[in-house]
Write a sequence for this structure.
């Protein structure tokens, strides 16, 4: 249990909730029901052994925080995940009801183990240990098949190492989801590009062979798409997007919008993952609390490239 003020709110609540759910208990020293709820919450924090983090906010001393959360009565508890309120309750609930509330929202022990495997895999990838990272991701999926983050990383790594059959099998459950997540649709288009270079004779062409045909007929969209897939397989993303844009500008709907779909897939694959705990609004925390100082947003080159081609695609479609 940690006492939170405006000074440490960002670190102890917003940033912390990107790692583990944070239960915020708004209380006051004069509040009788708060005194009965507090020990229950502290007991459950110990019993749940890291599945959530408990913080307490004195609503009298920290009125700015109370107002930001719209607190009207105490005790009030708010559960935050990834910097945002997910649910809450008011009043001194009995222990059984608090357990029901927590079990509804908290990850199971298995899910926590799977998440730890995913974190270890990401660290191994950063060190260049691909084989061990693959094993960790596979283990994370075996523990929790619903872990889409682990599935995405696993499929992406399989494709990058040329294991297309395994990648296709691992991708199938994600493609059956409704609604279909854009990141998995993006992997599907990348898989099709990688498969193209191994199954289509044009996959062994030199780029000049594509260009010769396109020079003869600027509207040879089949060859342009084949070239774009060839470039995608080679991870020449910028050249692939340029080729796809040429198709979109000439015929937006050709091939059931194949060019647009592949271009959107590349943009999704290139979009840098959002760092946990990022501030969505300069000068404010993710919870909307005013912060001191000015935030400076410096876009990295890859994010700048994605923004540029998103604008170009938007212009081509309009």
């Amino acid at each position: 249990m940690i006492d939170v003020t405006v000074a440490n709110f960002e670190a102890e609540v917003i940033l912390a909730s990107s790692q583990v759910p944070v239960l915020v208990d708004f209380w006051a020293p004069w509040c009788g029901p708060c005194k009965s709820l507090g020990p229950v919450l502290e007991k459950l924090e110990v019993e749940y052994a890291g599945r959530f983090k408990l913080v307490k906010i004195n609503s009298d001393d920290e009125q700015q925080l109370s107002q930001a959360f719209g607190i009207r009565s105490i005790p009030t508890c708010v559960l935050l995940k990834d910097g945002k309120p997910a649910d809450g309750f008011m009043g001194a609930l009995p222990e059984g009801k608090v357990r029901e509330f927590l079990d509804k929202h908290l990850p199971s022990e298995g899910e926590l183990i799977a998440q730890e495997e995913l974190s270890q895999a990401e660290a191994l990838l950063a060190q260049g240990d691909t084989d061990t990272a693959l094993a960790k991701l596979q283990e994370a999926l075996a523990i929790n098949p619903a872990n889409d983050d682990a599935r995405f990383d696993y499929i992406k790594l399989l494709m990058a190492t040329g294991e297309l059959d395994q990648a296709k099998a691992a991708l199938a459950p994600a493609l059956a989801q409704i609604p279909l997540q854009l990141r998995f649709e993006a992997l599907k288009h990348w898989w099709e590009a990688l498969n193209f270079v191994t199954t289509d004779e044009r996959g062994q062409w030199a780029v000049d062979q594509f260009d010769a045909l396109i020079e003869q007929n600027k509207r040879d969209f089949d060859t342009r798409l084949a070239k774009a897939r060839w470039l995608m397989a080679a991870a020449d993303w910028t050249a692939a997007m340029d080729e796809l844009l040429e198709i979109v500008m000439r015929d937006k709907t050709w091939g059931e919008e194949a060019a647009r779909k592949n271009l959107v897939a590349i943009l999704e694959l290139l979009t840098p993952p959002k760092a946990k705990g990022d501030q969505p609004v300069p000068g404010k925390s993710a919870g909307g609390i005013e912060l001191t100082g000015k935030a400076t947003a410096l876009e990295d080159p890859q994010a700048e490239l994605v923004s540029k081609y998103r604008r170009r695609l938007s212009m081509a479609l309009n």
